[in-house]
Amino acid sequence: MQLFINKLLSSVLQIIVFTIVPFIWWLVSAKEKESFFSWVGIKKIKSEKRTTVWRMTFFVTIGFMIISIFILYILKGTETATSDFAGMGIKVLPAALIYAFLNTALPEELLFRGFLLKRLENKFGFTIANILQSMLFGIMHGIMFISLIGILKAVLVIVFTASIAWFMGYVNEKKANGSICPSWIIHSLSNTVSSLISMFSII
């Protein structure tokens, strides 16, 4: 129960921290034009595109899960975000789900695909914007491990996570009319798999 509460409180804090800059930006530049939620992509997907979107979401999710397993193997023996669940089994599933959906996936999607990608796209166009947000996403996930796993493995983490970030940006902007729901689902389910692997000490 304590772990669940900790993850819940941490999630609230994380969401607040990751949305401060986007919210201020929206207040200054877009408050009169669009609601904040719509502006960052928290909106419905148009009905005529849902089948295509969910099909692509499914395949990208599978890809992200496979890459996540590979990254966990690379990081074996290194403390990661899922280490809190290591060997604790099914009893920590509620805490793991809070972590997967709210503690990392939602704030990161709000910041990278909901804010950075959209703002960069307005200035540079989709192609450059998507490359930039995916590179930043990959670097954020890899740079913290350089001292623990070495440069080569850290670069692999950066490349793989950046690749998935590119696909998530593509699905959101080109197939889902700017909704971040697909990437949030992809990200959350991948985190859930990583948590389950840690919970049952599979790797």
From TrEMBL:
Q: Does the keyword Manganese apply?
A: no
Keyword Transmembrane assigned to the entry: answer is: yes
Task: Pinpoint the CAAX prenyl protease 2/Lysostaphin resistance protein A-like domain residues.
Answer: 95-193
User: Which superkingdom heads the taxonomic lineage of this protein's source?
Assistant: Bacteria
Q: Which UniProt keywords apply?
A: Hydrolase, Membrane, Protease, Transmembrane, Transmembrane helix
Report TM segments. Answer: 12-28, 53-75, 87-106, 127-148, 154-172
One Pfam family, please name it: Rce1-like
Q: GO molecular-function annotation terms?
A: endopeptidase activity
Name the record gives this protein: CAAX protease self-immunity
Taxonomic source organism? Anaerocolumna xylanovorans DSM 12503
